[in-house]
Amino acid sequence: MTSRTLTIGSSHTVTRIGFGAMQLTGEQVWGPYPDHAGGLALLRALREEGVDFIDTADVYGPHHNETLIREALHPYPELTIASKGGFVRGGFDYDTLGWVGNPIYLRQSAVMSARRLGLDSLPLYYLHNGYATDAPFEDQVGALRDLRDEGLIQNIGLSNVTAEQYAIAREIAPIAATTAMYNAANRTGGALMRATLADGGVFSPWWPMSLRKSIDDATPIYAVLDPIAAEHGITTGQLALAWLLHLDDRILPIPGTTSRAHLRENMAALDVVLGKDEVTAISALVSEAAGEATH
């Protein structure tokens, strides 16, 4: 049986399946979620379904996701909220994506996320990526370190960085958590995950249940997953989550959904017990070094 909880930093103990809130926005993660009442209802159901960790970002909307979370859940009893800064959008199309690492901008981003969420202090705040070139990476991490020292951030996280950048950041400030793509069909964040777990930090895979989005032909993946899922009487999505939970007790998947039924199904993965051979079979589907399917 895998552990059901983990602790981020020294004080935030959470259930090991969180909620990625990105889908509660408009089309292409732009604008407000069109079913405002439905979004509020889903967020307010999280605690009833066992969720106590929510992952958001200022770029989701932008901003609308954070304000929806506040309207639904503030003052967040028994909830831990994580947000991110440094990723920017200039419009509806994804080709308007960009990255800003200017320390003054990152400071403003954290302050504004805290304001939109109605928090005096952010439990976990991620640098959203390691792509920005307008400021040295060391200065970007240093800006979050300063905000932690001032109390606006309680724990520093890194999102979508390389293992090499993670090592640099660890020399500047303690890193409580990292997040990157990692799932049964795509191991892009594998090096970052291994470095984080080796240091005792939390790794939070995004798109944890993605299969067909990760590779062009997922048939070989399903050829392995389907029989295992059938043996346990679960869906392949639940199996993908359970596999992640079995890899290490400091892995915190953050699946997203707009359906309460799907949310309940996701949380049921906490109760799935896999054999070592089953975990090994799923792990062997993808080359950890290349992050690509081996079949």
TrEMBL record:
Q: Which domain of life is it from?
A: Bacteria
Q: List residues of the NADP-dependent oxidoreductase domain.
A: 16-285
List, alphabetically, the InterPro entries matched. Answer: AKR (IPR020471), Aldo-Keto_reductase (IPR050791), NAD(P)_OxRdtase_dom_sf (IPR036812), NADP_OxRdtase_dom (IPR023210)
Q: Name one GO cellular component term.
A: cytoplasm
Recorded hits in Gene3D superfamilies, A to Z, give: NADP-dependent oxidoreductase domain
Matching entries from Pfam families are given as: Aldo_ket_red
Q: Name one GO molecular function term.
A: oxidoreductase activity
Keywords attached to this Swiss-Prot or TrEMBL record, sorted alphabetically, are: Oxidoreductase
Q: What is this protein called?
A: Oxidoreductase
Read off the SUPFAM superfamilies from this record. NAD(P)-linked oxidoreductase (SSF51430)
